[in-house]
Write a structure and sequence with these properties.
This protein has 143 residues and is of the alpha+beta class. It has 2 domains: 71 residues, no CATH class; 59 residues, OB fold (Dihydrolipoamide Acetyltransferase, E2P) (Beta Barrel), CATH 2.40.50. Helices cover 45% and strands 24% of the residues. It has a 5-stranded mixed barrel with strand order 1-2-3-5-4. The longest helix is centred in the middle third of the chain and has 28 residues.
Length: 143
């Protein structure tokens, strides 16, 4: 076993670190694996054991220090893609039949919706563009 080069051992270590990465889904193991690959490159270039270990530690710690905060920030963010009736809020619609505080019809996202005005004293005539404020059941509240 002494005739195997150090870079091969580093590649074996990188592959071995890939196993717990897949099993536990902890990205830190992947970062250690990248550090092992960097150490293998260092060994392949003829550097000594101390340099190899330093490269492994520096690359691994740097990746953890940089990637983990970014991943945590992305994990904490709420999804930006609204779906269902939430996706209709804020969209524009065209009035098909007069809309006032008691009702009317609009064309919203290619569909005909019943609608009522947010301000009960306001009325919108056919052909006007309105903004959807909220969806109340099957009725769009517009302004």
């Amino acid at each position: 076993m002494n005739d195997i080069d150090a870079w091969v051992w580093w590649l074996v270590a990188a592959a071995a670190l890939g196993i717990p990465l897949v099993v536990t889904a902890m990205p830190e193991f992947g970062m250690f694996g990248v550090g092992a690959i960097a150490a293998a490159v260092t060994a392949g270039l003829g550097a000594g054991v101390v340099a190899q270990v330093l490269v492994f530690v520096i690359v691994s710690v740097a990746l953890i220090a940089v990637v983990r905060p970014i991943a945590a920030r992305h994990r904490a963010q709420q999804p930006h893609m609204a779906s269902g009736v939430d996706a209709l809020k804020g969209r524009q619609a065209v009035v098909l039949e007069r809309v006032d505080g008691s009702g009317g019809r609009i064309k919203l996202a290619g569909e005909v919706w019943s609608a009522r005005a947010l301000d009960t004293g306001r009325a919108f005539e056919a052909g006007e563009e309105v903004d959807v404020v909220e969806i109340d059941g099957a009725t769009a509240v517009v302004m």
